[in-house]
């Protein structure tokens, strides 16, 4: 069945294959284009380096007028990621614009790993350690990086 | 007028008493007209399109003077805040770009010959994608004045003529309704009438900063009387701040505190609240393990061998224990004194509806039992109206009195309150009196007199309180700063 949403997702997939941004990849579920699995490689020179973090993106027919539901399936320790794996990211909420696509969502999340925003914490423990005890923060993040290889 | 009775003398039309404020009721049509007028003024000054003028006025919360000042100071910034990309484009006549001349970043379809549209920022999207986008913003997010161009982080706002051209008619109707709502919501001198289903707005120029010294009560065309300051139903003569405090207090503790005061006592040592639900008078506090006697509240140790039989009520130590208990209960008692009177009037006001129905019947039976005409029995309805008004006023005088510092002025206030209360109850009694053919003319005279009297007492009370507020005469037992 071809709907504007599905056509658009096909195009997002094509773009991701032809012109892949560095450090991210993703593809739809073979029998359901509305369900995507994606991977973000921990950016270099960040505590997340070497991590392979998996995500799940769920779309519905309101895409691209509404953002998809995005959540990490790997365990994360990051000030802006909830325990459930859901993210606190402006473009996935009020700052969403229908011109964003899967590639831009994944690169935005990648840069969130770079620059956490401890002022609107989804994980208050991570935010507090990030501000006050960077050493412990790095240790906890390193744990999740190791876990992500399994 | 041959005989201007007391009643007409009180309701002088056009003559404002200290407890009244000026206001105008606005219909939706009025609101549209006012918006147009305001925008037209801006157009005249700066020579831009109506749509652009309206957008700029919205960002300034419809403050025309402020807009003119800011625009002269820094036009670019005002335009940026309003989300206008190019003031020169004619927003009144948006045109669809004829053919696909660039890729639509919403559907990324490359089908040729598709009509597209772009705001002055040149972010072009298929007309169909625009339609979907607007529908989502209007219907799902309830946005109107601040729908932005779909372009990535583009701050420009989709103007009204563009919405009219691009959106589905159903969406456009809702869009206009949302715009109208935001016009009143953003406007500091306007408020929607909070009555259910009422579509009028009220314009009143009492500023928010004056709410400590006035109670701006307005009456919508639908009959609903409410406070322009806080939107709550008429709470004259109590000011908004105290009204909120009082309502919060009542919601928190009225029922609970009544129950507590009836069923519990406090431990004389740690003040824990204790309910005695069985057993003897030898109490041991669970929290501080203080042992005392439930009857005299004194320490148990002094009871010696007269266990289970307290005859020490007058002893000094038990007296002291009861005194301190008394003190902590007296503030509760004081509150309950005011609360019970407040609640009583509220309860009576709730029975209004029945009273009106009953009065309707009485008016009929009065016409049958006497030779009074329909018009001559209308005084009964007036009396009920006045009664209801007085009860509302009385109700709020108790909330106000609770927060008044004791003193001569407070005594005067409470005397006025007492007068009004007594007269109101008498009027209420007269209205309940059985109708007998012989006594109807006398009763009518009595009710007319009483109605006029209570109406004047109420006005006196309201005016005196309002004057007192304006002069800062009242002393409250708590600070008004939240």
Please give a handful of descriptors for the protein shown.
heterodimer, A: alpha+beta, 4 helices, 34% helix, B: 482 residues, mainly alpha, Four Helix Bundle (Hemerythrin (Met), subunit A), two-stranded antiparallel sheet, 7% strand, extended
Gyration radius of chain A, rounded: 16 Å
N-to-C span of chain B:
51 Å
Please trace the helix and strand order of chain B, writing H or E for each element: HEHHHHEEHHHEEEEHEEEEHHHHH
Q: β content of chain A, as a range?
A: 15-25%
Largest sheet of chain B: 3 strands, antiparallel
Overall pLDDT level of chain B: 83
Outline type of chain A: globular
What characteristic shape of chain B results from the CA principal axes?
extended
Instruction: List low-confidence stretches of chain B.
Output: 1-13
Q: Which stretches of chain A of 5+ consecutive residues score pLDDT under 50?
A: none
The greatest interface here is: A-B, 13 and 16 residues
CATH architecture of chain A: Roll
Task: Name the strands of the widest sheet of chain A in spatial order.
Answer: 1-2-3-4
Q: What is the quaternary state of this protein?
A: heterodimer
- Which CATH class of the domain at 335-481 in chain B is shown? Mainly Alpha
How would you portray this structure in words?
Helices cover 34% and strands 18% of the residues of chain A. By secondary structure, chain A is of the alpha+beta class. Chain A has a single domain, classed as Ubiquitin Conjugating Enzyme. Chain A has a four-stranded antiparallel beta sheet with strand order 1-2-3-4, covered by helices on one side. In chain A, helix 3 crosses helix 4. The radius of gyration of chain A is 16 Å and the shape is globular. The relative contact order of chain A is 0.17. By secondary structure, chain B is mostly helical. Chain B has helices at 6-10, 28-46, 50-59, 64-73, 75-82, 127-140, 160-166, 169-186, 240-263, 316-350, 352-369, 379-402, 408-432, 440-471, and strands at 23-26, 116-118, 124-126, 190-192, 201-204, 217-219, 225-227, 264-266, 273-275, 282-284, 291-293. In chain B, 52% of the residues lie in helices and 7% in strands. Chain B is extended and about 100 Å long. Chain B is built from 14 helices and eleven strands. A three-stranded antiparallel beta sheet of chain B has the order 1-5-4. Chain B has a two-stranded antiparallel ribbon with strand order 2-3. In chain B, strands 6-7 form a two-stranded antiparallel sheet. Classes of the chains: A alpha+beta (150), B mainly alpha (482). Chain A binds chain B through residues 4, 7-8, 11, 62, 64-66, 95, 97-100, and chain B through 105-109, 129, 132-133, 136, 140, 148, 150-154. Chain A: Keywords: ATP-binding, Nucleotide-binding, Transferase, Ubl conjugation pathway. Chain A: Pfam families: UQ_con. Chain A: It is an enzyme of class 2 (transferase). Chain A: It comes from Dimargaris cristalligena. Chain A: Residues 1-25 are annotated as: Disordered.
